[in-house]
Each structure stands twice: as structure tokens, then as C-alpha cells.
Write a structure and sequence with these properties.
Largest sheet: 8 strands, parallel, barrel
Structural class: alpha/beta
CATH class: Alpha Beta
Strand order of the largest sheet: 1-4-5-6-7-10-11-12
Shape: globular
CATH topology: TIM Barrel
Number of strands: 12
Helix content: 25-40%
Length: 230
Amino acid sequence: MQVIPALDLLGDDAVRLEQGDFERVIFRRPIEAFMARIVETAPPLIHIVDLQGARDGALRPDVVQRCAAVAGDIPLQVSGGIRSIEAARAALAAGASRVIVGTAVWENDDALELFERSLGAQLLVALDVRDGRIAVRGWTASSGLDLDEALARCRSAGVERLHVTAIDRDGTMRGPDLALYEKACASGMAVIAAGGIRDDDDVDALAAIGCEAAVMGLGYLTRLGLNFDS
């Protein structure tokens, strides 16, 4: 069971938002400084979300390169603004080991199969869930799909790995939505869980229902005693 720290990026800063709301910034720090503190903990992987890219629909390869330069040998999974195969390949060329795609695979009926055929194991499909529906465009809109429909499409397309976020738990430290992740795990695909994960007890609970990994934002900082006020 991997524990993966998350870095959410907005402009030139690493930030944490509450429930994905751009108006509710919990803290803001320079990207390189934040990355360096996380790298010191030697995580198995770092989760990078370019919130600006997700909102604006445009990958920022230069930001991926900046993160990769600090990460060194630690692999990165990157999301935000990856709306085409070309953008996904640009993110990989900029230093990502794998990419997370949400909006692009849900807004076109043929896109999911195309991304899977093109990227294979380097693809994670994002299931960002709010009120049982899949959110897109930086969580600012709904795809119209419910979770069961999205899972069925992923199985049909041969998707290997899902990145599942409980939006209402994100940045809240309220604990994970175990029912959501249990349903995703029952699909037979590998599941990386995100949203509200606080501590080792939460990680153990996710492992018990079959999750492959847990992405932690505020919880990771608390778990390791990192203080970004200093």
C-alpha cells in the first residue's frame, strides 16, 4: 500500500484548497520549496495536480519540468489540463512517469479507448466524484455520468488503474469515503484513493478494502510532522 504525497499547483505556487474551491486556499507556498520538503521524506511517488491547467484546459509542461527537476529520481504522476494524447505525451516528455486524465476521457465518447490504446500503463483515469457524479474541468462542471456508468466504461475500455477522488472530502481532513472506494475496488481495476485521508488508520482502512495507494495532501504533512508555517 503506497502513501503518495500530493502537490496542488496554482500559478507559481503549491497550494491546498478546501473541497477543490479556488476561493478557499488553505495555504500557498513556492513550488520548489514545497517540492524540496516533500522530496526529503523520500516518498515512492509524488502526485502533481496543476489546478490552473485543469481549470484553463491547458497543460503547462514547464511546471512539470520544474517539479521533475526537484524530484530527481522520484517518479511523478501528473494531472491538470491534459485534454489530448499530444498533451499527455508532452507531460511524459517533461518528466512525468504517468498521467491522470479526467475531462478529456469523459467529454468525448471515443476518447477513453483512444487514451488507453495510446498510453497503456502510463494512464490513470480520474474519477472525481461529487454527489455520485463525475466532475470535470477542474471540478467546476459535471460530466453527467454517475459512478457506475464511469466504472463500466473504464472496464470496457480495458483501463488498468483509476484515480478516485471524493471531492467533498478533499482538503477537509474528515476521513476517506470508504463506500466510494469499495465500489471502485469491486470493479477489479487498481484504485488510488484521494480525499480526506488523515492518518495511518485511514490508510489501513483503504488497504483493507483493496486500494492500491492513498494520496494525501494535508494528511501527509500532518503524518510526517512537516511544518510549512516556518
